[in-house]
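call fold(seq) -> tokens
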Amino acid sequence: LYGTHQEQLLMSYDLTFSGHQHAPNRASGEPYLLHPFRQLVRMALRILKFGVTDPYFIKLLLCVILLHDTVEDALKGKTTPFVAYSKICTLLDELTAYSVLSLTKKKSEPGGAESREEFLERVLRNDQWVVLVAKPEDMIDNLSTLQALPLDKQPGKIREALTYGPRMKERAERFIVMAGKGGNLSDWEGWLQVVADQHAELEALALKEKRRVALTGYRFNF
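ret:
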């Protein structure tokens, strides 16, 4: 990435860092920043592997991956969700901000906080393929550190990956094909390979963790 795209990626990194430098470590004991950074690296490697070269959508996806928790965790960074969202709009663009907001669980709504199921269903209904690709990358990283969570919380993460992952893949592929054939997305066939590679890793990791948790005596119903 060069020029404006490179600058926006660096700004995304700065916003993620500043938004979480005061946050407590993750359950695994590691600093929060490692969580989005690992996702960034994995996605960058997939992009290189399949020869995707579209700079705008590469930048957009990588920025969203870096920033996906920034609005949700704003209070941990000693700011507010509104300020965090406004910074993304101002320093990057509205589509990046919209995509990040789409990946933000609503914690304070008039009718009560959004449940995990409601959040995932909302992500699934999104009409931006970038959102539908960013979330499974987050699932992969959460599964990679799953053993740090209390045992009773681990099956839920596995179920999410195996239940929502395939649905997100199908929907992302549909939007990518539509955008590609409509002339709005170059390298769309390469993006399809990126998505296929991502979900092969997600499924393999989820099944591996399911077998591990099953050895503890937990009975899965999915």
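The chain has a mean pLDDT of 93.
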